[in-house]
Specification:
mainly alpha; transmembrane
Length: about 280
């Protein structure tokens, strides 16, 4: 869908399009050279050609190292969620360990998730800032509802905070199905919904349309695999609801199995983002 919109550099553009109501792709000329502006690349600082043409220095949050470290932290959080899921699925592995070992592992994994999600939000909040000695103080959270990337990063960050509460409260779960659903299931459900919204927004930011057509780009695979992981987390949270009565074992196993698969998808997507960051550095 074509849209008329002003590009960040205020250059006359030849094309501006994206998934309504956002603009995620612009084509324009500068100094006689055709340039392509992509919302995701702009947000993450993956625009070496335009920066070289403008003779600007990359901000610290727009460097390959920043993106690589952010991907590594996501990998650590994903691995801990995978480990927690395995411990929950196979109780024999926790023989000799406290009953709450798996839940502590989940909570430990939620901390890197929140850390990396904030780094991503900070990056999106300062996407339009160049790095100079006289630059203004960076935005800590920002507010840019016209940017699909910023909304995606913001919803993901809030979702990770919800999972902090979800996993912490599960370490010593309260008695009674109502309290368990209130302090454990509900925050997990909120986090999963926000993850799913964030992942879809990141997907359309990269594909520039509301469709699922595969693209031969590492960025597409990153957001597509991440979206798949969020769907698995959504399933896990849904079946984790504690009923008024006996909680069937199949529901617990299904929840943990989907948690493992979702975390595995996040791990793969994060690892690919590290590869993307290294590639962008060359």
């Amino acid at each position: 869908m074509n849209q008329k919109a002003q590009n960040p550099a205020r250059e006359p553009h030849e094309e501006a399009r994206g998934p309504w109501p956002f603009v995620t792709l612009r084509r324009y000329h500068r100094a006689g050279r055709p340039l392509l502006w992509l919302a995701r690349d702009h947000r993450k600082g993956l625009f070496r050609e335009r920066r070289a043409l403008e003779h600007t220095r990359a901000a610290p949050w727009h460097t390959a190292r920043y993106n690589w470290i952010m991907g590594l932290i996501f990998c650590i959080g994903s691995f801990l969620f995978m480990l927690g899921s395995v411990l929950a699925l196979f109780p024999a592995l926790t023989k000799g360990l406290p009953d709450w070992a798996a839940n502590v592992t989940f909570f430990a994994g939620s901390i890197p998730f929140t850390t990396a999600a904030y780094l991503q939000l900070f990056q999106a909040a300062n996407a339009d800032e160049t790095y100079t000695s006289g630059a203004k103080r960076p935005n800590l959270f920002g507010w840019d509802p016209k940017s699909v990337g910023w909304i995606s990063a913001a919803t993901q960050f809030v979702g990770t905070v919800a999972f902090n509460f979800n996993t912490f409260d599960a370490i010593k779960a309260p008695s009674g199905w109502l309290m368990q659903n209130t302090v454990i299931w509900l925050p997990g459900m909120i986090g999963s919904v926000l993850f799913l919204v964030s992942a879809y927004l990141a997907y359309i930011e990269t594909s520039h349309a509301h469709d699922i057509r595969p693209r031969r780009e590492i960025a597409w695979w990153i957001v597509a695999i991440n979206l798949l992981g969020c769907i698995a987390f959504m399933i896990a949270s849904t079946v984790a609801y504690v009923p008024h009565g006996t909680d069937p074992q199949w529901a617990l196993d299904a929840s943990n199995a989907n948690l493992w698969f979702g975390a595995f998808c996040f791990f793969v997507a994060a690892a690919l983002s590290m590869v993307e960051a290294r590639h962008a550095a060359h």
